[in-house]
């Protein structure tokens, strides 16, 4: 029997974890024949090992592990595989199929543009769009982030796309905010984050700080979140994982 194990990042904000569960439940509805669990890498429960063992104890002999993450960085290449290796050592008889994150996808680009439009942005506006990523030490993840930013800028008309990271990469978010606060163009902060968490709070606090001096200068757009348009992306990642060869490789 195969089971699908969705792996979210996890956050100290309970609402964010509930959003992950709601999202995976909706995507998982396309695969009703498989037992399913949603777990978290850190900061929330259940963890990967606990959920995997539950599936195995319920009769699963194959685990299709699907990361609910945006880019292939350290969590994908190191942290999740380390947890899965623990499961494999505990249950060497079980087959583990390890999937891919969302990655670069046209649907995500369309959704980012929609997040801007909802806040009043139009292509004719001469604004700055601050595209903000979580950040990573992995060069491949940073390269993918810039690819997405480049595709975004092809559709932003007279607006200019700037980039920043919240951790582990440069330029830093706070540094870029300070720089853009000195300009005259309105700024739309566009988070490249999947779910609600403390990083969104950091953006809101920074925007509120600078808006005290220049009211309305910064507008924070919504994160990607639970959106129907992303469901086919996750469903495709599940289908790919179910067809993968056994092994915890990326």
TrEMBL record:
One of its GO terms (molecular function) is metal ion binding. It holds the Pfam family CbiX. Keywords: Lyase, Metal-binding. The keyword Heme does not apply. InterPro entries: CbiX-like, Sirohydro_Cobaltochel/CbiX. This is Sirohydrochlorin ferrochelatase. It comes from Marinococcus luteus.
